[in-house]
């Protein structure tokens, strides 16, 4: 509650306070989506109508969270906020938002082997696919386009786990990744020191980062 109240009272992007961070993670969508998202989660967690009212007030206040987003990701939580609002309020306008986003997903580009491909997918394609699979499963559990949502989610998860010919999850399935970009995975067993030579080692990482998903392939499934 304290953190939510702080975010509501002191509105702004984190890069306003830490400009250097914008070189790595810029908040292109702003903070409006996060305020709606946070209020809706508070409503779901507490069951208190004050938070659902707050989430709806934010939705009405911020026009950019009322339309159809182009992704569901670390940067843009709009789709998730709309889904949560449907969950906690049961109002059809939010269900319509979810239906519109799902229809968009069914009609975007896919790689030849079936991975969904968005404008943002050039860097870390699987994170978007995994986020959207989660979104689709939640939508299905709330009765929104259930059959298509479950089929989409299953296809994306199976792609990640190996249906495209190789696994993209460390320690799992056929030909899993052996050199994930991860500091601890690159280091030798203690008490040996870990440095740039370990980072630049061309062989498999000494530590298997079991369960970690790597960034993913390009548009041609490579």
Essential attributes:
10 helices, mainly alpha, 222 residues, globular, two-stranded antiparallel sheet
Task: Write a brief structural summary.
The chain is mostly helical. Helices cover 50% and strands 2% of the residues. The relative contact order is 0.09.
Verbal overview:
- The protein is mostly helical and 222 residues long.
- Helices cover 50% and strands 2% of the residues.
- The chain is built from 10 helices and 2 strands.
- The protein has helices spanning 2-9, 14-17, 32-46, 49-61, 78-89, 92-106, 125-141, 146-163, 183-186, 196-199; strands at residues 109-110, 116-117.
- Strands 1-2 form a two-stranded antiparallel sheet.
- α3 packs parallel to α5 and α5 crosses α6.
- The protein is globular.
- The termini are far apart.
One letter per element, helices H and strands E, the order comes to HHHHHHEEHHHH
Based on secondary structure, the structural category is mainly alpha
Radius of gyration: 20 Å
Mean model confidence by pLDDT: 95
* Beta content: under 5%
Q: Could you estimate the helical fraction of the residues in percent?
A: 40-55%
Query: Helix count?
Result: 10
